[in-house]
Amino acid sequence: MTKKKLTKEIVVIDLDDLDSSVPEGKHQLSRHRTCWQHVLATLHGRKKRLTKKDHETIDGFKLTAQCFLDFPCRERSTRKISQKNVGHGVPKLNKKLGSGTFGNYFELLWRGFCEEKKSFFGYLDCLWFSLYTKPSFQSKVMTWIQNKQIFTKKYVIVPIVIWSHWSLLIFCNFDESLESETRKPCMLLLDSLESTDPKRLERDIRKFVSAIFKAEGRPETQQSLRKIPLLVPKVPQQRNDWECGNFVLYFIKLFMDGAPEDFSMEGYPYFMESNWFTPEDLDCFCEGLHSDLVAT
């Protein structure tokens, strides 16, 4: 079989004729978003006046970043995709999860629970806690949380991703008054990497909780809010530096399966112990969850 000769096509971009309203595909700019030609073309398209410093920066960029439009491209393969390749675009649970991928897996996991089970639980988006730590987003995050009406639920799942690490915060009995003698509110923080000191988040967590109570118009005082226990059970620990997202998904699954009807400090830590599950259990869960996502 003879190999096809690759043809090299250099696309010339007319910077003076570039209109920012024209889709990028027309000028094939989407193929070289990081090269100096794209930067320069975008600035011209936006009619931005370049300073001397801008010109010097772009001139330096030319020397280190060749335009990818100058490279030859292979023709698209016409072979059919076999069944074993179906779902290859779905990221597997074998690397550190980004918030988007985590959200996809969480939504699938959530849909797998029956309506009766879900009626006891609420959850917050995995980015809301980290966004709240940025002053410019605090008001908006509180508005989103108000719409969730979390104080109507016995349990609220709060996945946290901060400093590139996933952990799980769970609000228990927040539908009760802080003065309740039967079902006292408390917080659980499940972390698969205890060596990083989960308690380092306590200050931000308490600020977050205080802001939620204030936004919801709850009458509790700051003194009573400070007394809400933050519990850190000894849960199984991750084997590498990327499994934290997988652990949080499995924590959610197992906690929702086994959560007591009334969470009490007397039964704590319940099932949340270092032998809660084995590495093999986690691997099996991840394989099944990925297969389900591919199938959908």
Briefly characterize the structure.
The protein is of the alpha/beta class.
Overview of this protein structure:
The chain has 296 residues and is an alpha/beta fold. The chain folds into two domains: 15-70, no CATH class; 99-295, Adenoviral Proteinase, Chain. It has eleven helices and five strands. It has helices at 24-27, 36-45, 52-64, 99-111, 115-118, 128-132, 138-148, 202-215, 222-226, 244-258, 279-295; strands spanning 121-123, 155-162, 165-172, 186-190, 230-231. The protein has a five-stranded mixed β-sheet. The longest helix is centred in the C-terminal third of the chain and has 17 residues, at 279-295.
Instruction: Please tell me what the overall shape is.
Output: globular
SSE string: HHHHHEHHEEEHHEHH
Q: Note the total helix count.
A: 11
Give the count of structural domains. 2
CATH class of the largest domain: Alpha Beta
Q: CATH architecture of the largest domain, please? A: 3-Layer(aba) Sandwich
Tell me the CATH superfamily of the largest domain. Adenoviral Proteinase, Chain A
Strand order of the largest sheet: 1-2-3-4-5
pLDDT < 50 runs, ≥5 residues = 4-33, 68-88
User: How can the largest sheet be summarized?
Assistant: 5 strands, mixed
* Fraction of residues in H or I helices: 25-40%
Mean pLDDT: 81
Termini gap: 39 Å
What structural class results from the helix and strand content? alpha/beta
How many E strands? 5
What fraction of the residues are assigned to beta strands by DSSP?
A: 5-15%
